[in-house]
């Protein structure tokens, strides 16, 4: 369980996130929606502690992670893995090394400094690439890949961090519709197959409705909607997006491939709104 308790972030006189309270059960797929500047990125970055809150607390499984420092903070950042719009890979390094970077927080300092990866780490990284059908790209430079391939590498890197949470900040904003589906399906698969909680900032309401089992709507730094996708009526969308509502609701998105989840999963694991 992730508990966000009165979380606030002030930049000078600007309140980016204002007194946000959320309880998120393990295994949820949450879409954070709202117009540009609503505070979605700041909320995710505070959970991962890339941004320090100016008020409130973040608790994960009863433990307060708001004040962690040093190695404890590094390990928390590994458990709460971020996925970024711009992938954040090291372009000149090969794909496998980029994925191995996800193991750094766990490695003894001497190994991290010399980047001498263990055989186990390499096997784990390759297996993560296989999960997303890109093991054949392991030796290629990251900057030679398409956007969709790069984002799958970033997801593989997040997976070798042994995450409990995936925090995806507009992960498909730079992708075309086909790659959007590939990447969203990869996140859905991680969520359903491994029970990893996903919090995903999304601009498109259609995508949010298709993939998420709960939507948190933000406006002006506050949570103004929290419910299942079917509760997100056009009227609520208008409140969230104003004149942009039509634009964010009309996007054509191919159906989610929830059926890709392994057969061993209980039927209830599939989002009921598909
Ligand atoms: N480092 C910063 N310094 C000052 N103001 C900031 C900083 N980061 C964010 N803000 C402001 O805080 C508010 C919330 O920004 P945030 O990026 O969290 O919104 P968002 O909903 O993620 O928007 P977008 O979809 O455009 O990324 C905005 O008004 C933004 O300008």
From TrEMBL:
What is one GO cellular-component annotation here?
A: membrane
* Keyword list, A-Z: ATP-binding, Cell membrane, Membrane, Nucleotide-binding, Translocase, Transport
An example molecular function term from Gene Ontology annotations: ABC-type phosphonate transporter activity
Task: List, alphabetically, the InterPro entries matched.
Answer: AAA+_ATPase (IPR003593), ABC_transporter-like_ATP-bd (IPR003439), ABC_transporter-like_CS (IPR017871), ABC_transpr_PhnC (IPR012693), MetN_ABC_transporter-like (IPR050086), P-loop_NTPase (IPR027417)
Q: Which domain of life is it from?
A: Bacteria
UniProt entry tagged with the keyword Mitochondrion? no
- ABC transporter domain: residues covered: 2-245
Q: Family assignment?
A: Belongs to the ABC transporter superfamily.
**NCBIfam families reported for this sequence:** ABC_phnC
Could you tell me what this protein is called? Answer: Phosphonate ABC transporter
Q: Which species expresses this protein natively?
A: Azorhizobium caulinodans (strain ATCC 43989 / DSM 5975 / JCM 20966 / LMG 6465 / NBRC 14845 / NCIMB 13405 / ORS 571)
The organism's taxonomic lineage, starting at the top: Bacteria, Pseudomonadati, Pseudomonadota, Alphaproteobacteria, Hyphomicrobiales
- From the UniProt record, report the name of the gene that encodes this protein: phnC
């Amino acid at each position: 369980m992730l508990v966000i308790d009165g979380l606030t972030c002030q930049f000078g006189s600007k309140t980016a996130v204002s007194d946000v309270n959320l309880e998120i059960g393990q295994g949820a797929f949450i879409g954070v929606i709202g117009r540009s500047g609503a505070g979605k990125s700041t909320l995710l970055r505070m959970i991962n502690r890339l941004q320090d809150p100016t008020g409130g607390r973040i608790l994960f499984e009863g433990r307060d992670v708001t004040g962690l420092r040093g190695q404890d903070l590094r390990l928390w950042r590994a458990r709460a893995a971020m996925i970024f719009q711009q992938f954040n890979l090291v372009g000149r390094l090969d794909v496998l090394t980029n994925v191995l970077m996800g193991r750094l927080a766990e490695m003894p300092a001497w190994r991290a400094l010399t980047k001498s990866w263990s055989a186990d780490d390499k096997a784990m990284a390759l297996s993560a690439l296989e999960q997303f059908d890109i093991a054949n790209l392991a030796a290629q430079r990251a900057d030679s890949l398409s956007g969709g391939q790069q984002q799958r590498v970033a997801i593989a890197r997040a997976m070798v961090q042994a995450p409990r949470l995936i925090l995806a900040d507009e992960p498909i904003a730079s992708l075309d519709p086909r790659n959007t589906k590939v990447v969203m399906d990869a996140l859905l698969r991680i969520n359903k197959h491994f029970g990893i909680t996903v919090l995903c900032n999304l601009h498109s309401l259609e995508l949010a409705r298709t993939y998420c089992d709960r939507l948190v709507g933000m406006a002006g730094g506050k949570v103004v909607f929290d419910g299942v996708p079917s509760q997100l009526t056009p009227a609520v969308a208008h409140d969230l997006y104003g004149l942009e509502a039509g634009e964010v609701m009309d996007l054509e998105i191919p159906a989610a491939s929830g059926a890709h989840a392994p057969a061993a999963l209980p039927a209830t694991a599939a989002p009921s709104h598909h």
